[in-house]
Design a protein that fits this description.
five-stranded parallel sheet; 18% strand; 174 residues; alpha/beta
């Protein structure tokens, strides 16, 4: 394979928009590159769970999800192309229902992707226990490199935590 295929996991969040723009930028460095976008709708029983974040609940069928994602992603692509004056060879859209990490890894394998880009919200503790981490699952299951885009809010929270909570090496023992 002589060109790059980049797969982006997409959930309509601002974080996913950032991951998508990163994919556009990377793909534009090689005129034969392709960007593929996958939206994974959660199974109906999972949507009823109070632990599921609102942004994960999109159109309920793969066809509806594909139509909605195409419209949204094409709008972002047009905006990015206008601003950057750059492009790449192909944009592929995919939608399915199931486990997001498993479906992203499956499609990455089928496409022979050279890179997968996903976002992470930086959840910790009980929230992570209940919701899991799609990004972590993708990293574990993918055969290719995975670029994880971190939520800037999570970065700010961690920086504040680091300033107010000294590392164990600096804590006095008495």
């Amino acid at each position: 394979m002589n060109h790059r295929r980049i797969l982006v996991g997409y959930d309509y969040s601002p974080l996913a928009d950032s991951a998508l723009k990163q994919a556009f930028q990377l793909a534009s460095t090689d005129p034969d590159s392709e960007v593929h976008v996958i939206h994974v709708s959660l199974p109906e029983f999972a949507v009823m769970s109070p632990e599921v974040p609102a942004m994960a609940v999109g159109p309920s069928t793969p066809d509806a999800a594909l139509s909605a994602a195409k419209a949204h992603v094409n709008g972002l692509l047009s905006e990015w192309q206008e601003q950057s004056q750059r492009s790449f060879s192909r944009l592929g859209m995919h939608a399915t229902t199931g486990s997001p990490a498993r479906e992203i890894a499956r499609l990455a394998h089928e496409l022979h992707a050279s890179l997968v880009i996903v976002g992470t919200h930086g959840r910790k503790g009980l929230e992570r226990l209940f919701l899991g981490s799609v990004a972590e699952g993708v990293v574990r299951q993918c055969h290719c490199p995975v670029l994880v885009i971190k939520d800037s809010h999570a970065v700010a929270v961690e920086a504040d935590y680091d300033r107010t909570h000294p590392s164990p090496e600096t804590v006095p023992l008495h």
